[in-house]
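Many introductory courses stop at the sequence. We go one step further.
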Amino acid sequence: MTIDPKTEGDRPKAIGKVAHIAAASPGGPRYDPRMTSAERGSAENLMYLCGPHHDAVDTQLGHHTREFLVEAKLAHEAAVERAVRSALGDVTYEELTVVCTVIASQPAPPQRLGVELALPLQEKIDLNRLGPTSVQRITDGLSQASRVEAFIGFQNSVKPSFGRSLVARFKSDYYAARAENLEPDGVFDYLVETAVEHAGPRDTQQIRAASLAVIAYLFEICEIFERE
């Protein structure tokens, strides 16, 4: 969900908003006092919406019940997951260029830019308490790991700072997600969605598949998530 730039040099502007299905605090829409703080901030209780629909679901409560939103979220996620999995085999350098080059060109806060070797994959998954849905998405994304690795290697041969810039940008996005108090599955979803948004106005299944492949690859080889 972006507004396309109208002038050369401007960048697309992400306009999506994270919405709670059951409100985060008392008095909010669909607040459930039985939920824990962790459950309220979990991926299962969050939706990513455009601004107008975000306002609608928080004001038109007769229609947008908790049950309605949960069902709509699950149906949408299942449809997207099927489409992205199907599109993974169609990911080419064109989609990887859109996803990686745009992100790597964006400034990130100053930090150590070296690419650090990660923990073994399963250990990292366990440490970050990722659920089965995220694990399946990582598995799907890693089916294109060799293609992503070859692409980043080629870009590094042309511009040696490319890989470090890519990692730095994703680390910045990771800490932004953590600042929102998202739980691990929510953080992973945030990173993938942010990669899609950074790719600009082309929201195709191939772009979404490329975004998932890049995030899964960086999750495996780089220290984006927790390591201790």
